[in-house]
């Protein structure tokens, strides 16, 4: 069963993982603009109780 031989696949997996984490990921993260956190509190909505027709 050749799929159990980790010799070629381990190197390919590690190379692709390192390529992604060291080269591609910083390039992608530079395009993502994060919104700064705001100190504004969200107002609580005013709710009215539901009137059930069968009670």
TrEMBL record:
Extract one GO cellular component term from the record. Answer: proton-transporting ATP synthase complex
GO molecular function annotation: proton transmembrane transporter activity
Using the UniProt record, give the first listed, main subcellular location: mitochondrion
Compartments (UniProt record):
Mitochondrion membrane
The record, for InterPro entries, names: ATP8_metazoa, ATPase_protein_8
The question of whether Glycoprotein is a record keyword is answered with no
Bilayer-spanning residue ranges: 6-24
Q: Which Pfam families match?
A: ATP-synt_8
Membrane topology qualifier: Single-pass membrane protein
**Gene Ontology annotations of biological process type:** proton motive force-driven ATP synthesis
| Keyword vocabulary terms for this entry | ATP synthesis, CF(0), Hydrogen ion transport, Ion transport, Membrane, Mitochondrion, Transmembrane, Transmembrane helix, Transport
The organism's superkingdom is given as Eukaryota
Sequence similarity: Belongs to the ATPase protein 8 family.
The molecule here is called ATP synthase complex subunit 8
């Amino acid at each position: 069963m050749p799929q159990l031989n980790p010799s070629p696949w381990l190197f390919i997996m590690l190379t692709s993982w390192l390529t992604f984490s060291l080269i591609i990921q910083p390039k992608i993260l530079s395009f993502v603009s994060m919104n700064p956190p705001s100190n504004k509190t969200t107002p609580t909505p005013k709710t009215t109780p539901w009137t059930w027709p069968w009670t």
